[in-house]
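Async update (no meeting this week)

Hi team, since we skipped the sync, here's where things stand on the single-chain job. The sequence we agreed to prioritize is pasted below, unchanged from the tracker. I ran it this morning and attached the output directly underneath so nobody has to dig for it. Comments welcome in thread, and please keep replies under the output.
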Amino acid sequence: MEETSRYPDVDVTEGIMRILGSRLLEVISNTSPEQLQAVNLNNLVRDVSSLTRAVAYKKNVDVKTKDILRVGEEQFTMAIFETLHDEKPELYKELRTFIKSKKE
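Output:
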């Protein structure tokens, strides 16, 4: 919690999933063959599958969120340019010239 307050932009979910995945691999690799015989493989597979689904779901949500934000930004930009074009044509021309010069 201290780290999240120090770094508010850090994705906590991503960190938790990485820690869980790392810990799971560590436990499996440090488990003796005899101990593995006692492990319920169905539960282990279910848990690994759940973690994998959680990672995939989160990545999917991240992509969709970025797409939504990009579309919103484009619509906002278009609305500003349309308003400038209609209400302040000189400023609109000046802004277009400025943007064009920065692209070059």
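Quick observations from my side:
The CA atoms of residues 76 and 93 lie 18 Å apart.
The radius of gyration is 25 Å.
Reply here if anything looks off.
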